[in-house]
Amino acid sequence: MFDKTKALNVFQITEDEYDELLKEFIVQAETKIKTLESALKNGDTDTAAREIHSLKGVAGNLRLDDCYQAAIAIESAIQSNDKASIEHWFIDLRRWIDEICVSLQKDLEPG
Q: What class has domain 15-106?
């Protein structure tokens, strides 16, 4: 899914600081996904492309490799109007975002 240690080394921040960035990513991702789905439903590929491009950038910056790869695939599928691929990669993207949420919850549990 993602390598937190690698990300911490790249950013040179604490785990708590990175977790805060992940929480913000999740909030942004949920909003962007809703906007993206609505845009696709309404045939607004420009908005859809803009939203997934933004999500891709944040995922890449945070070293969320699976989310980043899914966003690349969705962006490509939007450009080629491949609805089946869009749906396939959306499923994976949501699953990986859910896994980030689970990871954050585990970090918060008393140990």
A: mainly alpha
